């Protein structure tokens, strides 16, 4: 069982100027009396570092903070970042030791659904990671309107877009935002990008694909995208435009991801698959293999759009058409991080969708 975290002597990350300014803007909004603020920082802008600094400030002032994540896998990733600030954290996560005395609680929504003590736990600040999702969960709505309405609520997100009628602004009073990605690229903190799409007459035929819940129906989408000739074309285009570069592929479903990985393997390229059923240990092994060059291509279904952080990845294969701007930008953002140590000079998007 994972223990609660010790307080350690550490060297916190040095914030970039725009991160410092974003936090100043946030505190100005709080000083004006706002208690519900959307904090928008695009993928690669350093969301978790910003969150860590907010947590450090809160703890130093004797405040108690509840940090919500919507995926179990993100608890460990968030804790790793918090350790850089020497913060004393407890956890609301199955398999991790609970410590209600800790001033910062990192909480998985899945586990919170099965626990109740957090309802009485006093929090001065509630921070929602991936706020465009967590705010709208049952737990998020309970915190906002029932158990902690007097707390400060901060919705941290890179993509404040939603497909439904209900939007983040329905629950937040105001917002602060980091510079847009193009500005951060000019500052040198995000990689320049190359984009390759398909000619109109070669794009995937979506005429028979229905829209359900604001996005393409997954079954229809699979029928349109998971075809042998399209999978073969993906591999051919990769060899033509981005051979031997670390690559992640965003697929329609698990079977599609496996078919794409199989096609790369048949072409002599080391490829792996990660999906929702992949254990935490195996995910980390796959991510490490990709980082170390033992894997060249990693295919995925709804796993590496969020929470995947490997700056050395150079190529993103967009193989899953979507009407969701949030999902689209999350996928592109996975290859925008800089990686001077590996000689990465730019990111490449091969949009086959």
Task: Provide a descriptive summary of the structure in words.
It is a single chain. Helices cover 35% and strands 18% of the residues. It has 353 residues and is an alpha/beta fold. It folds into 2 domains: 17-186, Rossmann fold, CATH 3.40.50; 191-351, P-loop containing nucleotide triphosphate hydrolases (Rossmann fold). It has a 7-stranded parallel β-sheet with strand order 3-4-2-5-6-1-7, sandwiched between helices. Strands 8-15-14-11-13-12 form a 6-stranded parallel β-sheet, sandwiched between helices. The radius of gyration is 21 Å and the shape is globular. The model has no long low-confidence stretch (mean pLDDT 91).
Number of helices: 12
CATH homologous superfamily classification of the largest domain: P-loop containing nucleotide triphosphate hydrolases
Q: What is the CA-CA span between the terminal residues?
A: 43 Å
Q: Give the radius of gyration.
A: 21 Å
Average of per-residue pLDDT values? 91
Task: Break the fold down into its secondary structure elements and pairings.
Blueprint: H1 17-31, E1 36-40, H2 47-60, E2 65-69, H3 73-83, E3 89-92, E4 104-108, H4 109-112, E5 125-128, H5 131-134, H6 138-147, E6 152-157, E7 174-177, H7 181-187, E8 193-196, E9 211-212, E10 215-216, H8 218-225, H9 228-241, E11 247-250, H10 254-266, E12 271-274, H11 280-292, E13 297-300, E14 315-318, H12 325-333, E15 347-351
Parallel strand pairs: 1-6, 1-7, 2-4, 2-5, 3-4, 5-6, 8-15, 11-13, 11-14, 12-13, 14-15
Antiparallel strand pairs: 9-10
